[in-house]
Protein: TATA-binding protein interacting (TIP20) domain-containing protein
Organism: Astatotilapia calliptera
Amino acid sequence: MSSVSYHISNLLEKMTSTDKDFRFMATNDLMLELQKDSIKLDEDSERRVVTMLLKLLEDKNGEVQNLAVKWLSGALVSFHSSLLSSLLPQLTSPRMAVRKRSILALGHLVPCCSPALFSQLTEHLMKELAKGPPTSMTRTYIQCLATISRQGGHRVGEHLEKLIPMVVKFTGVEDDELREYCFQAFEAFIRRCPKEMSPHIATVTQLCLKYMTFDPNYNYDDNEEEDEDRMDIDDELEEESDDEYSDDDDMSWKVRRSSIKCLEALISTRLDLLLSFYSSICPALLARFKEREENVRADVFTAFSTLLRQTRVPKQTLHFLNKLCGDLCVQVPATVKALHRQLKEKSIKFRQGCFCLLTELAHTVPGALEEHIPALIPGIVFSLTDKSTLSTMRIDALSFFNVLLLSHPPQAFQPHMQVLLPPVIACIEDTFYKITSEALLVIQHLVKVMRPQGQAGGFDPKPFVKEVFSVTMKRLKATDIDQEVKERAISCMGHIVCHLGDHLRAEVQAVLAIFLERLKNEITRLTAVRTITLIAASPLKIDMSPILPEALSVLGSFLRKNQRALKLGTLACLTALVTHHAASIKPAALEPVLSELPTLVDESDMHVSQVQALNRTSTYQHKYYTRDYNPLLSSPLLSSPLLSSPLLSSPLLSSPLLSSPLSQLLKSLMEPFHRSQSSADGSIVHRQSYHSVAHCVAALSSASPKETPGTSGISSCALGSMAVGCLSDYLPFLLKEISAQPRRQYLLLHSLKEVISVCPASSLSPHVESVWALLFQNCECQEEGTRNLVAECLGKLTLVNPAALLPRLKQQLKTGSPLARSTVVTAIKFTIVDHPAPIDSLLKDCIAAHNKPSLIRGLLGRVLPHLYKETQIRKDLIREVEMGPFKHTVDDGLDVRKAAFECMYSLLDSCLEGLDILQFLDHVEEGLKDHYDIRMLTFLMLARLVSLCPAAVLQRLDRLVEPLKATVTTKVKAGSVKQEFEKQEELRRSAMRAVAALLAVPEVERSPSMAEFANQIKTSTDMASIYQSIKGGEGGGIGATESMDMS
């Protein structure tokens, strides 16, 4: 055996070791050996090497597995060219099966082949199509084009200028299958290359509209004259009609279906054309609701539902959304007219499509179906009562009914209660648990229809109460039923008692006793807690005194459970009970609860702490100790919602809490700071703690009748308010003091801001010039806080006379001082007010997209190039600073880039329809490789883009995956400080949130790079744990994204 073979055999043996490090090192060494040009292996050694590497693909260790994948991917690339050379001749095989398998193989080759190889394949197909081959071969080439476009993504875009005219030409050939493949190719082009397809959208749309009605074997004109009596035709005649027009040789339905799917792709990817779609595509789709083929009609419903979904996605501006909804409302009568007949058809698929479409319509424009509810009710009742109806059909009907109830006013259903209730009640008694569950949810909302809270109505619910109560009570008492039915029965009965309890006086106590039992059951306790909360807050003042002592004891025990949702629900329930039933609660009964409340004050869960504080506000008259909050007040994590909770407000502080001496309370608050200064362990109180405790001291001081604290801030505001009352006397004095008192300048500028903000423009106009001059004297102050205050004053002063002052303000942008220019830019920000103002028309050149996007949309073409330019790293702004023996890199352009990316994020919410998303993604992609702060922003932007424009993101997926993978797999050096570890960990988690959002996109698995990355996450314990925590804990779902604070 040669030395090379011996060495290889030795490595292969080590690759079978139980030690993962041995396997990893042996695999790595084998890779290095195989990369040498001089290596030559015999056939047996080659077979052993390949077998071992394939085995390592299933290795339990993720790093070993990734190494094997890396080697195989590198080794297989060299075969791509020979694979292509072998597959292309098979496209001309006389056997159709061979041609189809060759297309499938090419589809798998395209995602991983080089750009040159992809171009070679595309050029070959275009060359063959240009020859005008036989129809059968043309079908093969067009089908292959569609496949490689679906799999190859954006790479086909550079060839579209030549491809589109070819494919358009072949739609004119009298061959239905060829036309189907042409529209499939169009669909693939639209989905993968929406930007490159822009010049051809009109042509493709016209072709789709033409061929979606292509049905040469059927005449629809006679059918259109039929009325609703068509549903009563004898079954035999219906079957004869089906036989007459269901010709096995008729392939035209495939042309119609493919053209409709192509239209759906257009609707999905071209949000910018949505308004025009309502005038062109929407009426055409409505006209095809009469389609005779079941599969084609299902696709018509799907396309129309997509149009509705695109209308309600959270990316429209208010004006744009109102225009869309207005266009849609015009189409609602025609839509209902076309659908309400089909709701009684025997075809389950038709009816399910109708309910799905109507559900989308109700979601998109709530209330749009109010006038048409009488026409829809017969179809709902028919689906619920028809004996031949499948369970899934009943569930869909109940689900739609539920959406209808939630999105329309109660008055629309009250006249039809006699018809609606019986079929729903029958569904509650159904043997299938899913139907029972949905029916209980519908009854729950029907109860709200019978007696809406807060609305006075003339509807009398009394005739229906007994029947609704009886059927729900039967399910509530049952214990041998599905968990979902148990929870829905509890919730439904809770709403019955809450809304109709005064009609059930004798039965209410029996229901409450059952709720108490469910409260003690671990499986149903959370639902029971929420139901008791609902009943406690009922305006009917339901008597709950018989169950209160025992219920409070059980609720107190829940506060010890390590279940966050249960704690929050329990605190809400206790608050409702104390607020609405305080007279029925004895102090002794509340003791078990109060003893548990202090333990909930924890900086690790500020939300629970805040809810607990609200609860203590309701129960302070029973028991309260300030020391419970001392640990929280010293926390650096104390958030403003908790700090501003009613616990620290004057109603509570003026209560018996102040029976303790003020000095004692202050001493208790200050104790942590004195303790930290004298402690031997060196513990330090965080700076945020000073702010928190100061807030409490201020609240105590304001509540104390003997203390009247006067702060400088309050005094400056008071001075400004006084000056407003007599401008001629006080304003000159104020301006003089600002110049003469540099140490008090900041406070005096606050007074001036108060004057400018409050004083009417007519009164302030005579003094504008003197104030303007003074402000510009201080606009270059070295203190940033003072400059910001000057800027705010300038901005608000400009609103007095915008036509004259705004040009003067903008003229200052030409000054040479950077400080003055930054002050002017900040001042312009303060000229923006929420309500319409005379200055709006003058602000188009400098308005912020976040506040009044309507004024900047028309200027995006001029503004965006400058904005995108500021996102680029400028090497001339990067410098090195020597700090002792170390060199530290300082990037002076970081703040500007960060501001540019924040502006881009604002544009996503306010001006999305004016953005070129692919160009936008280019800069997001660069941001993913930038500084820590920039990457944190771009991860948020990417997750947002996934929800707004998934098709565009999919086009760039391969390029986006690499920076995400680099961030997630990066590990901090062992010698790094704790802050560096925390910083990198937060960066990894932010990147993983973006990855989780990407993985939620339906077609993402088609990307090989993303599939490989997902597999890498799955096999790595570290990455998998981060992904699972984000998927299940932080975001509440994969698609959840964080919001960026743009204040």
In short: Residues 712-846 form one domain. The beta strands are 878-883, 886-891.
